[in-house]
């Protein structure tokens, strides 16, 4: 299998926008994203509320948009998009994470995916799992077909998938809000998303923010860690593999990365990835994936001791308890009692001060 290239740069709040330009150009992003096609800018919203490293950073979005406009991409063909889950609201999330100001400043329009047309799409390639999870058909946003996509993930852990990044960012775009049904088979589903993107998109590129990273019980209840890195590449698997290695994981031991590598959907073996820019051979954040109370409960129902009750708890009208329980735990308990203290500490840092200026 041919080697993949990932660019890794160090950055700072004073230089981050210029650094994103250098990152993307060194990564050869224009060869992956043809100018004559619309480009979806797929943001990452893991929480309607703001929490450091949880969702795409405003400087990440601005760095990407500014670079593409400078390089001749048409303003009208850049399409910032994000979806909802049963516990998130994309428009409120765009406000809270300060994407809206960036989008307005550059004359773009934010697209909330629940508001666009979704169609049943028959994929030609054989999928590992999604066609069985959704036997009635897989529905995708019609506007995704035949467009480029640039993913804007952050470096963070995830209680379901160990790490999350460029590959899982498609999870929030190509699947409807009931995508939580896929958690039981998350690694196979992430591979399916790579297969689906190869059919749908004219080009894929990933720009990952690691200025402030998420350690612990991701993707929400994390400990923010300032690391001052940004990454980019045209192989989402390789970008995730490099990020995983920097976090302290062996990429080939993460199931979705190993499966994608073995199926030829990308490179996860570090010996076959060319890392340009920073020397990361000695980088090890020492991150440890943990699970929040909500994710532990979810897995107990799907694969653990509560599995006999899975159908009635998650596939019946009683399902309304799940998002309610999640919101109570995350928004009413964890955020005010734990999260706000971590946010206050972050806001005293240079990156926190930059966020407030947005």
Summarize the structure.
This protein is 39% helix and 19% strand. It is an alpha/beta fold.
**Architecture (CATH level 2) name:** 3-Layer(aba) Sandwich
Determine Rg (CA atoms, Å): 19 Å
Shape descriptor:
globular
Mean pLDDT: 92
Q: For the record, what CATH class applies?
A: Alpha Beta
Distance between the termini: 43 Å
Structural commentary:
The protein contains 15 helices and 12 strands. Helix 1 (16-26) crosses helix 3 and helix 9 packs across helix 11 (255-262). With 358 residues, the protein is an alpha/beta fold. It has a single domain (4-290), classed as Rossmann fold, CATH 3.40.50. The model has no long low-confidence stretch (mean pLDDT 92).
Which keywords apply here?
358 residues, alpha/beta, Rossmann fold, two-stranded antiparallel sheet, 12 strands, globular
Structural topology:
Blueprint: E1 4-10, H1 16-26, H2 29-32, E2 39-42, H3 58-70, E3 78-82, H4 90-96, H5 99-105, E4 111-112, E5 118-120, H6 130-133, E6 139-141, E7 148-151, E8 154-158, E9 162-164, H7 166-169, H8 171-174, H9 186-200, E10 203-217, E11 221-233, H10 236-247, H11 255-262, E12 273-277, H12 293-302, H13 310-314, H14 321-347, H15 350-357
Parallel strand pairs: 1-12, 2-3, 2-7, 3-4, 7-10, 8-10
Antiparallel strand pairs: 1-11, 5-6, 8-9, 10-11
Helix pairs in contact: 1-3, 9-11
